[in-house]
Amino acid sequence: MSYETSRSEAAYKLAQQVIAGGVNSGARGPDAGWLPSPPVVARGEGAELWDVDGNRYVDHLLALGPMIHGHAHPEMTAAVTAAIADGTMYALPFELEAEAAQAVIDAVPSVELVRFSNSGTEAVLHATRIARAASGRSLVVRFEGQYHGWADQLEWSHHPDLTQAGPSMRPTALPGSLGIPQAFGAGLVVMPWNDVEAIEALMAERGGEIAAILTEPIMGNTGVIPPNPGYLETLRRLTTQHGSLLIFDEVITGFRVGLGGAQGIYGVTPDLTTMAKALGGGFPVSVVGGRRDLLELVADGSVLHAGTYNASTLAVAAVKASLGILSRPGTYERLYAISARLQEGIGRLLTDAGVAVQVQGVGPMFQVWFSETPVTNYREAAAHLNSPRYATLVRALLERGVMVHPSNIELWFVSTAHTDEHVDRVLNAFEDAVKATASELRAS
Ligand SMILES: Cc1ncc(COP(=O)(O)O)c(C=O)c1O
What we know:
- It is a single chain.
- The chain is of the alpha/beta class.
- The protein has 2 domains: 6-72 and 329-442, Aspartate Aminotransferase, domain 1, CATH 3.90.1150; 74-326, Type I PLP-dependent aspartate aminotransferase-like (Major domain) (Aspartate Aminotransferase, domain 2).
- The chain is built from 13 helices and 14 strands.
- The strands form 3 sheets. A 7-stranded mixed beta sheet has the order 4-10-9-8-7-5-6, sandwiched between helices.
- The radius of gyration is 21 Å and the shape is globular.
- The two termini are 28 Å apart.
- The site of pyridoxal-5'-phosphate has 14 residues, from helix 4.
């Protein structure tokens, strides 16, 4: 087998001389698990990527989620190219904005009005600002193991060190970076996810101070952890009871697990929703949507939302095109079927090799835990996070033409460009990779 990395290594070294760490996001470099250095990409097409050494991969990294149509999808490219031929931004309204907004509203029934921004981080900041304004309260509940962007107000207790994280029922809020002022922690209450008793106790005690419960409806930033049956309903009931808002952060799940997002598949309606990633199919755009009365606070200017780059022509053209493709009959059935074949195949190959494994996923997003039992919250996951065994397996997969992130906090994604033929290739590579690494995989 020839897996060449010398050009990638040289290109990455050059990048390190001019870009801090050689990457423009923390998830892309050696710190995030790409050891000794990440492959440097030459191009992508459909479900495949090529690196600068000429290695070809079936891509299940999919840029951490946005590329739901694969790379350089001809309809996405044509829609965006047509839009930018007339200019990219005007700081004035244009008709395509409302068409994109209507597409979001048609897809997600809880969304009555929207505002577009550029990134998931901005959308969540905006949603929490609306919630604090509407409720007149300052506290936002967020959950250990979830991620809501890198802003000072929200990057707390994302993957905390359990030696400092306090009791599981009432964790200590811990900043996720140096430079985050301690004072921002006072605006948050950090809670364990999937724990009905803990959240009922908190709301009984402090419900009147809580502006909002902010949650990913499917935890997608510690592998994939689905909600326990009834858990989202509990969050809905408690927020309604205490006059708090329920915010679903569907930056990953929105338009990925279904056209109506996770709220569509679980039948739980939040007050506000944030979405990004699949929304723009690979172009930078995010959205806050929800109840009309809440978004009216933005409409009348009492809640400020601004941004030079918000709703550029390329962003809204991408939204309209992405949702147009996703709305076609059979799209999600195919995404689910391809992902199910992969998940079943991966589970079987590892089990046959004597490795205890849980393949946890919802439709076209999943992750593999080397665990005897299902993982239901961050503290259970912590024992398996950044598993060296998983990194070894991923290294063997890369060498065999399968692109996934080397850390199991990230996910395997499936796009509309993946076919059964790609699944065959991935499962063959997986079988071979498991054979090559079996002794390491079995070591606990
Ligand atoms: C659930 C969730 N919210 C917010 C964000 C932040 O989005 P962005 O990276 O676009 O700022 C992410 C990013 O992965 C996410 O997964």
